[in-house]
Amino acid sequence: MEPTAPPAARPQSGSVWVNLSIDRSAGDPLQRQLYDQIRAEILRGTLVPGTRLPASRLLASEVGCSRNTVLEVVGQLIAEGYLQSIRGSGVYVVRDLPDETPSAAPPAAKTALAKLDGAPPELSARGNAIAAARLGVRGGRHVAFSPSMPDVSLFPLATWMQLTAQEWREHGDALVTESDPRGFEPLRYAIAEYVCAARNVACGADQVIVTAGAQQGIDLVARLLLDPGDCAWVEDPGYPAVRELLRAAGAEVVPVPVDADGLKLDGAPSKPPRAIAVSPSHQFPTGVTMSLERRLALLEFAERVGAWIIEDDYDSEFRYEGRPLAALAGLGGIASARVIYVGTFSKMLFPAIRLGFLVVPKHLAARFSRGRVIVDLQPSIFPQPALARFIGEGHLATHVRRMRRIYRARQEALLEALAAEAGALFSTRPDVAGMHLIAEFTAELAERYDDRTAAGIVAERGVNAQPLSVYYAGRPTGNAFALGYACADEAALGAAVTTMVAALRA
Ligand SMILES: Cc1ncc(COP(=O)(O)O)c(C=O)c1O
Prior knowledge:
alpha/beta; Aspartate Aminotransferase, domain 2; four-stranded antiparallel sheet; 17 helices; 14 strands; binds pyridoxal-5'-phosphate
């Protein structure tokens, strides 16, 4: 797939760069100062969406720091969704900003508010925790190497439209009065059948709660099962959205290291957790599958200390070797009483559909249903009947089978291109599942750059390589790129590898 077109041309605010300055006598590292200033200018709106960044050398000489410092900052801001690199064009301020902090309020609005009661109103402590979450927006990044992004251009939209039109034509009168907080009943039945057949999670439709993606599912879990101050373990490295979400819910988030068998229980601190968030089928981002021994130990541990396990099963459908593994929630045959299973349609369909689901233990189902009412009453009825039929009539299975073949071929093509062109820079190995590969830096590359700086360098040539270090809450153990291969075809992946290698060798 071709890179997205450059954002609409906007007047370039050249003078803002002159305003960026570094204070060498300040305690803060140069990189932090530059990062804070550029981010603040973007949030304040001085750097308007679509503004093109000057070349890193120019910016470095204007600001008075090394080019590597600039590249590292640019790599970080791209990873967080503030900047976007466009192939053959440069690095731009994105159109949709990842978050808004209080400082993002336009100066005029701030003054108006200040006049009202003397001082701008502050957020609550909880509000501040939410606003401080650093999450990148995912939309619009349908380009080579975007991790976790499916090829949305291959989604059978015509079938989807047909099912939607038919459902609403035939049952529209009844659908407009739907009011179940757990979601549309036929969809919950279809999901229950699906997770039983595909993931070995035997459950009733009453245990299924349809959500706006995994994100809302985990939010609901955090609201209903955690109190502020409760300890929540997350994988390190791990999915930043889970980490930020639990932190925003007031939990004391504790990163626990991951090794070749998954979450290291013995690497965890002694304070017992109230929740443990894991991605056992295909750990994000390392790709590790949690061993059976670890799974059993984790279930036993959770039972012993009274912790909930949040199982994020985000991409297990795309498994390229053997049969998909049973989910942790289904290890005992029936849905475990300790595990909340989190499913998503973001990978199987497309992320913008914002549909996912929870499978909750039977004894919690009624309370989750009531608790959901406080969040948003019920999921929007609009896409649910079509999805129920999409699953029930076998379109989902057909689409997943097709995409599995395609993604597997793309993974092979990426591995081949990396081996042929970048063997001296990266060490890679096939992944049995998923939508991205980990390309570890060889000693030769690591001697020259860390992964954030390297990401900044390749971003200047319009290639979005995600530095693995952004997924760490603690100290990264090495340098690597997480390279998504699902949303770009073989030719685009090959071209991106060539550009990336040329940038790193320059
Ligand atoms: C590890 C992980 N979990 C879950 C999700 C899905 O999240 P959502 O359903 O909110 O789109 C993603 C998507 O990128 C992911 O990478």
